[in-house]
Amino acid sequence: MRGIHARFAAAIALAIAAFSTPAQAENHEPRWSFAIHGGAGTIARENMSAEAEAEYRASLQRALDAGSKILAEGGNAIDAIEAAILLMEDDSRFNAGRGAVYTWEGGHELDASIMDGRNRDAGAVAGVTNIRNPILLARKVMTDSPHVMLAGQGAETFASEQGLEMVPGEYFDTDSRREALERMKARQLSAIDVDIKFGTVGAVALDTNGNMAAGTSTGGMTGKRWGRIGDAPIIGAGTYADNRSCAVSATGWGEYFIRVGVAHEICTRLRMAQKVEDEDVAAAMEAVARAEERDVIYISGQLPEDEVQWAADSVMAEVKALGGDGGVIVVTPDGHALYSFNTAGMYRGRATSEGVNEVAIYGDE
Ligand code: ASP
């Protein structure tokens, strides 16, 4: 790994002194990038019918297109990720919103979070049972409450005060998820044995103003008990966005993602690895001189895609070393959009202003 050199240290000092408005964004063509996931796991061709595969690909493409359209038209990263996650929450193929896994008691407890990379505003909800779209509630927590995370009944009360759509618990029911719970109980299997694929959904975006956002939504893991909360609603574990480094959304065995602090850890490694050019330091210093008291100015360095991939892979290797599995999607200020997963497959997609547009399922795609 590269050591910290003097220019980098100076850049960090400046970043701490002032902070955000990408000082170098003005030098580039406006570009955007976007990535989504619908869960990672032991997703193998032999377990999937051609029809099911086509349906998953179509669902992923719909979500990818919804977010990409917003970004291509100059919209906000936050709106793009919300649009994609909303579609996947309403799609019973994924373990989020409708189609969420069952708790041990046979109900559904949903978790979600959202983060705005401009100022690191964030909102999260855990263990909600009657909110149709938890990602909307997470966003309301971010924008309309003084808090970052609300749980259980209090979160439901806040949701109804905010006029969000409430649904009975049965709205989230699906036969396949019920069967997974029954199989787990009958054969004393673990959630990893029955879930096969995790199915959490997430999205990350860089918009044409250089702003980034991340969001994640899940039903958690089959048979969870005692108010268990996974990584998805935990800022820094399942979700993180910071204009200075990256936006990340994760899926996988949540306990391990919490212990590694996966999303924040990837962003930190990228922030520490950036190469900052002298002219960027000079531009940022000028911006600091012009800044109002509450302005945030930062220096955005450049990182080649293979270094970003390396950072994501090395954090996922730590998850693996502890015994966990799953995957992440990442976008960076340079417009890279990539995945890293240590499972057989991950439902995923990415699109950029440079013409990338793909959805994929298996590890060898
Ligand atoms: N990460 C989620 C959790 O542990 C599960 C998933 O990704 O599907 O709750």
Automatic annotation (TrEMBL):
SUPFAM superfamilies: N-terminal nucleophile aminohydrolases (Ntn hydrolases). It comes from the Bacteria. Keywords: Signal. The keyword Signal applies. InterPro entries: Ntn_hydrolases_N (IPR029055), Peptidase_T2 (IPR000246). CDD domains: Asparaginase_2. Residues 1-25 form the signal peptide. This is Isoaspartyl peptidase/L-asparaginase.
